[in-house]
Amino acid sequence: MIAIDGQPILTAAQMRAAEDAAIAAGSSVTALMQRAGEGIAAATRRLVAGAEVLIVCGPGNNGGDGYVAATALAGLGHPVRVAASGPPKTDAAIAARAGWTGPIEALTDATPAPILLDCLFGTGLTRPLAPEIDAALARLSHAARLVIAADLPSGTNADTAEAPDWAKARPAALTLALGALKPAHGLHPAAAACGTIRLIDLGIDRPDAVTVAARPALPQPGPASHKYTRGMVAIVAGAMEGAARLAAVAALRSGAGYVALYGGSGQGGPDAIVHRPYEPEALADERIGAILIGPGLGRDDEARAHLQALIEADTHRLVIDGDALHLLDPDALRRRHNPVVLTPHAGEFHALFGTPDGSLLDRARTAAARAGVIVVLKGPTTIVADAARVRIHLAGNPWLSTAGTGDVLAGTIAAQLAHPHADPMAAADAGVWLHARAAWIAGKSFIADDLANALTPARAGA
């Protein structure tokens, strides 16, 4: 049972291909099933303190994993029962069923147990559960003290993250991803039905273009560091200066060495923020590592002109957020040489890119490729994507649903992007990670100012 930070995420088709490759290289379906079932049994036994386990098995290989797990638990003297929705239908599942010597109850008649281990259906299911199966799972899960799902809660679509009624009403406490994580482990509504997620390693090779975000390796200042080597961030202020100041505080507290606000009243915020008049020539300063435009910018002709000037100048890395996203033609960004990070929420993303085909992961990567940018798609699961790579941040926090937290995120990303030689994708990824860590430190019912201030201990502990 492995923690999921940094682990690859595979679609159902990619998972089948990875399993087929492992079999072609000398493994077998039976061997993979044995590893999966034994891993499920070991993880379950660690968690349930001797309580009776009811394993519900389906007709396919997920059910076969369940029969292997039941046999392994019984061999260890653990109290275990098996219920099935019907007889196994694959060769490997039939062989696994033959290894189980105990009775098998009908799923619809099974009596509950303190622990429900769901091995009915895995990644291959793309249709809704039959009503009688959904009802049986609802009954057994509500009566259980703890629900554990093997691979996914049964009835979940691995790629689209659609979740069945029973799992939304009674989420699993633990989901054991088999071989690799699937999109549904990170995307809602299915992610909320999965509970804590851990990986059971099956020893197969997996592509890693899409992964769960891991703790970043952030640069640390050394003896020769000064304010410019740590990164200078320029922020264009606009109609609502408070938003720009929030972003400025966030940039400073997340590691930038120098932050200057260009435009606005020229006052407010910590004394560490430098206020300067807005002048396009000043924004050409080669010491600037990244420019942020958008927080509180406004959407009038002046704001549009400021954005257009930065895009056409192409002198620095850009973070485009908030109001600026509403003034943007994303296709115009393809002509730029310097990297751009866009930070839309779902509504802003739709306004910019429409609704590309596929899951949220596919849409983010398609949009990034179209505009030649890095997209930070904010939401319960935040997705960071360029044309080739996707990182998924699972540490969503509902307390971030308050005004100004997006401005804090934009400033945090700008600080990481401003650092000399920073990889733009890694910088955006690190900014999202720090923002989530700061939210955890801030606790509950925080305001955006609290979140920005919490970036200091978040960065100190990183």
UniProtKB/TrEMBL annotation:
<feature type="domain" description="YjeF N-terminal">
    <location>
        <begin position="15"/>
        <end position="210"/>
    </location>
</feature>
<comment type="function">
    <text>Catalyzes the epimerization of the S- and R-forms of NAD(P)HX, a damaged form of NAD(P)H that is a result of enzymatic or heat-dependent hydration. This is a prerequisite for the S-specific NAD(P)H-hydrate dehydratase to allow the repair of both epimers of NAD(P)HX.</text>
</comment>
<feature type="binding site">
    <location>
        <begin position="122"/>
        <end position="128"/>
    </location>
    <ligand>
        <name>(6S)-NADPHX</name>
    </ligand>
</feature>
<comment type="similarity">
    <text>In the C-terminal section; belongs to the NnrD/CARKD family.</text>
</comment>
<feature type="binding site">
    <location>
        <position position="296"/>
    </location>
    <ligand>
        <name>(6S)-NADPHX</name>
    </ligand>
</feature>
<keyword id="KW-0479">Metal-binding</keyword>
<dbReference type="GO" id="GO:0052855">
    <property type="term" value="F:ADP-dependent NAD(P)H-hydrate dehydratase activity"/>
</dbReference>
<feature type="binding site">
    <location>
        <position position="118"/>
    </location>
    <ligand>
        <name>K(+)</name>
    </ligand>
</feature>
<keyword id="KW-0511">Multifunctional enzyme</keyword>
<feature type="binding site">
    <location>
        <position position="406"/>
    </location>
    <ligand>
        <name>AMP</name>
    </ligand>
</feature>
<dbReference type="InterPro" id="IPR000631">
    <property type="entry name" value="CARKD"/>
</dbReference>
<feature type="binding site">
    <location>
        <position position="345"/>
    </location>
    <ligand>
        <name>(6S)-NADPHX</name>
    </ligand>
</feature>
<feature type="binding site">
    <location>
        <position position="154"/>
    </location>
    <ligand>
        <name>K(+)</name>
    </ligand>
</feature>
<dbReference type="GO" id="GO:0052856">
    <property type="term" value="F:NAD(P)HX epimerase activity"/>
</dbReference>
<dbReference type="GO" id="GO:0110051">
    <property type="term" value="P:metabolite repair"/>
</dbReference>
<keyword id="KW-0413">Isomerase</keyword>
<keyword id="KW-0067">ATP-binding</keyword>
<comment type="similarity">
    <text>Belongs to the NnrE/AIBP family.</text>
</comment>
<feature type="binding site">
    <location>
        <position position="243"/>
    </location>
    <ligand>
        <name>(6S)-NADPHX</name>
    </ligand>
</feature>
<keyword id="KW-0456">Lyase</keyword>
<feature type="binding site">
    <location>
        <begin position="378"/>
        <end position="382"/>
    </location>
    <ligand>
        <name>AMP</name>
    </ligand>
</feature>
<dbReference type="InterPro" id="IPR029056">
    <property type="entry name" value="Ribokinase-like"/>
</dbReference>
<keyword id="KW-0520">NAD</keyword>
<comment type="function">
    <text>Bifunctional enzyme that catalyzes the epimerization of the S- and R-forms of NAD(P)HX and the dehydration of the S-form of NAD(P)HX at the expense of ADP, which is converted to AMP. This allows the repair of both epimers of NAD(P)HX, a damaged form of NAD(P)H that is a result of enzymatic or heat-dependent hydration.</text>
</comment>
<keyword id="KW-0547">Nucleotide-binding</keyword>
<dbReference type="InterPro" id="IPR004443">
    <property type="entry name" value="YjeF_N_dom"/>
</dbReference>
<feature type="binding site">
    <location>
        <position position="151"/>
    </location>
    <ligand>
        <name>(6S)-NADPHX</name>
    </ligand>
</feature>
<dbReference type="InterPro" id="IPR017953">
    <property type="entry name" value="Carbohydrate_kinase_pred_CS"/>
</dbReference>
<feature type="binding site">
    <location>
        <position position="62"/>
    </location>
    <ligand>
        <name>K(+)</name>
    </ligand>
</feature>
<dbReference type="GO" id="GO:0005524">
    <property type="term" value="F:ATP binding"/>
</dbReference>
<comment type="subunit">
    <text>Homotetramer.</text>
</comment>
<dbReference type="GO" id="GO:0046872">
    <property type="term" value="F:metal ion binding"/>
</dbReference>
<feature type="domain" description="YjeF C-terminal">
    <location>
        <begin position="210"/>
        <end position="462"/>
    </location>
</feature>
<dbReference type="InterPro" id="IPR030677">
    <property type="entry name" value="Nnr"/>
</dbReference>
<dbReference type="Pfam" id="PF03853">
    <property type="entry name" value="YjeF_N"/>
</dbReference>
<protein>
    <recommendedName>
        <fullName>Bifunctional NAD(P)H-hydrate repair enzyme</fullName>
        <ecNumber>4.2.1.136</ecNumber>
        <ecNumber>5.1.99.6</ecNumber>
    </recommendedName>
</protein>
<dbReference type="Pfam" id="PF01256">
    <property type="entry name" value="Carb_kinase"/>
</dbReference>
<feature type="binding site">
    <location>
        <position position="407"/>
    </location>
    <ligand>
        <name>(6S)-NADPHX</name>
    </ligand>
</feature>
<keyword id="KW-0521">NADP</keyword>
<feature type="binding site">
    <location>
        <begin position="61"/>
        <end position="65"/>
    </location>
    <ligand>
        <name>(6S)-NADPHX</name>
    </ligand>
</feature>
<dbReference type="GO" id="GO:0046496">
    <property type="term" value="P:nicotinamide nucleotide metabolic process"/>
</dbReference>
<dbReference type="InterPro" id="IPR036652">
    <property type="entry name" value="YjeF_N_dom_sf"/>
</dbReference>
